[in-house]
Amino acid sequence: MSAEPSVSPSRVGVWLIGARGSVATTAVAGCAAVTAGLHPPTGMVTETGAFHRAGLPSLPSLVFGGHDVVDCPLPKRAESLAAGGVLPHDLPSAVAAELAAADREISIGGPLPGDTRTEDELIEALAQDIRDFTRRGGLARTVVVNVASTEPVPEGDALPASSLYAAAALRAGCPYVNFTPSAGLHHPRLAPAAASSGLPYAGRDGKTGQTLLRSVLGPMFAQRALAVRAWSGTNLLGGGDGAALADPAAAAAKNAGKERVLADTLGTVPEGETHIDDVPSLGDWKTAWDHIAFDGFLGTRMVLQTTWQGCDSSLAAPLILDLARLVARAHELGLSGPLAELGFYFKDPVGEGPAALGEQYAHLIGFAERLRQLAPPPGPGTGPAVPEGVAGEHR
């Protein structure tokens, strides 16, 4: 029998749900590129001065794995992204070894078509994959991050796939981040397990483009006492997100967070809607327009129009690395429950906190200071116990 690998307090797992998608591939390739000094950590807030000496795990210490239901290897996926201009053309070959290593740690997720396993059996199988990954790598801890395609809002009592993965993270004793608008830990059936798990978690729905801008402009109108009459938006996007959001139910789940930011920052819900259109030829690129009608002094009617053009994967990937490091550090220090201080990263943040980006940033910087001040833990292996009985008995 082979010996169990020793646990390294410096190695941290990042388990990605949707591990072969564009965002996950960009995060893995980007982490390797920054670690090797090939590119600067542009877009990574945790690499700014405010987070120095906060005790975050280093980028070289991150070990990647995950679940996915597709079989395209990460090196091949990276080549496709480079062909589309998402990654530098020479990057896939430069970090081929790191991509291949992460790809070897990807397990088939579920539920698959025709899957006859019960919810509890699925959760246990997914949790065991995460435990095995953590054990094989001798990792101090593993953070589970959901970057899979958006699901429709669930109906009925059954757990959707995102919630099965979230339940598996809890059962494996892992902190959890939901970077998507899917239910994840928000499902009512998981609330008791999340509350009793002793684990930190964050989410949901990463704020990368149009809503990032809205969380800046909304407070501007409110603070200048300008009355917003209508706020309409359109998103054109391709790739996996475009295909997933072509489903009206999935698009409705996505738009809910966009509209919530306006309601929270303006104090009211203006007229207008946000539309999402799938344009396959755009690939991983997107264009977002906003048309804002507002009243000035003496009722003078005015309009602000904005255009945001960007690549969602390259906008999201540095945030994934930020969140994995922040949540891992929180777990190391024994913090638990919703990490409201990370609302800066999300459209629909867990916990209580402000909606305006500036205030959210101040809370994030306060969190960095809190991490600096907290005493380090006694040593590895002292994190919260593995919870049992999530969505059924743990066998």
UniProtKB/TrEMBL annotation:
Start and end residues of each stretch annotated as Disordered: 373-395
Ranges of Low complexity composition bias in the record: 383-395
Name the UniProt record assigns to this protein: Inositol-3-phosphate synthase
Organism domain of life: Bacteria
Residue span(s) of domain Myo-inositol-1-phosphate synthase GAPDH-like: 209-313
Gene3D superfamilies documented for this protein: Dihydrodipicolinate Reductase, domain 2 (3.30.360.10), NAD(P)-binding Rossmann-like Domain (3.40.50.720)
Pfam families: Inos-1-P_synth, NAD_binding_5
Family: Belongs to the myo-inositol 1-phosphate synthase family.
InterPro entries: Myo-inos-1-P_Synthase, Myo-inos-1-P_Synthase_GAPDH, NAD(P)-bd_dom_sf
Entry-linked SUPFAM superfamilies: Glyceraldehyde-3-phosphate dehydrogenase-like, C-terminal domain, NAD(P)-binding Rossmann-fold domains
